[in-house]
Write a structure and sequence with these properties.
The structure holds 2 protein chains of 2 kinds.
Chain A lengths: L4 E3 L2 E4 L5 E6 L6 E7 L6 E7 L2 E5 L6 E5 L5 E5 L8 E8 L9 E2 L3 E5 L1
Parallel strand pairs in A: 2-11
Antiparallel strand pairs in A: 1-3, 3-8, 4-5, 4-9, 5-6, 7-8, 9-10, 9-11
Chain B lengths: L8 E5 L4 E6 L8 E7 L6 E6 L2 E4 L4 E4 L5 E6 L8 E8 L7 E3 L3 E6 L1
Parallel strand pairs in B: 1-10
Antiparallel strand pairs in B: 2-7, 3-4, 3-8, 5-6, 6-7, 8-9, 8-10
Classes of the chains: A mainly beta, B mainly beta.
Chain lengths: 114, 111
């Protein structure tokens, strides 16, 4: 158990819909990262937040947005969903994100868009 | 962004040493190299991290040559439970703080 929690574990929704994925980082960690992993694909970095502010941005679509709240939990919002958005979405956290990147990953949310 | 390249797959037998190399030709001065292990449908797990030369912990060693354009993860005496996908990550500590995972190497350990 990494100490990072993600909800829900599974999500099934239809095209065009909007969903919110939630992540709670390890106690004391200030950085949160979001990744997308499609079937049998590698990890695609989406976005990083550090202490409530956006720190780095990767291949995140304009239909996706994220935020980190004062209690440090984070939410990833996916809108106008398409079939190709079906994937595992991982959240990770790290202590600072400033030096090195030892990240602790959550169990993931499996999103299925039908 | 530092692009990384890894072999797609590797096969080994129990008890052997496995070396997985990651190429990162345009690594920047402030980049760190980190390796993760991932089992199916689970989140990746941190293995080891380094900046230069050699780093060793209880599960692996990481070798980084002087030019830092590649790195090699060494797993001593693998077991069946080491069957997994291994990713290298080059992480920038400056600028956009980009994070680039390699495509991953699928290691299959046979009895």
């Amino acid at each position: 158990d990494s100490g990072v929690t993600q909800t829900p574990k599974h999500l099934i929704t239809a095209t065009g819909q909007r969903v919110t994925l939630r992540c709670s980082p390890r106690s004391g960690d200030l950085s949160v990262y979001w990744y997308q992993q499609s079937l049998d694909q590698g990890l695609q970095f989406l976005i990083q937040y550090y202490n409530g502010e956006e720190r780095a941005k990767g291949n995140i679509l304009e239909r996706f947005s994220a935020q980190q709240f004062p209690d440090l939990h984070s939410e990833l919002n996916l809108s106008s969903l398409e079939l190709g958005d079906s994937a595992l979405y991982f959240c990770a956290s790290s202590e600072t994100g400033e030096k090195g990147y030892e990240q602790y990953f959550g169990p993931g949310t499996r999103l299925t868009v039908t | 962004l530092a692009k990384t390249t890894q072999p797609i797959s590797m096969d080994s037998y129990e008890g052997q040493e496995v070396n997985i190399t990651c190429s990162h030709n345009n690594i920047a001065t402030n980049d760190y190299i980190t390796w993760y292990q991932q089992f199916p449908s689970q989140g990746p797990r941190f293995i080891i991290q380094g900046y230069k030369t050699k780093v060793t912990n209880e599960v692996a060693s990481l070798f980084i040559p002087a030019d830092r354009k590649s790195s090699t993860l060494s797993l001593p005496r693998v077991s069946l439970s080491d069957t997994a996908v291994y990713y290298c990550l080059v992480a920038s500590n400056t600028g956009r703080r980009a994070l680039t995972f390699g495509s991953g190497t699928r290691l299959q350990v046979q009895p």
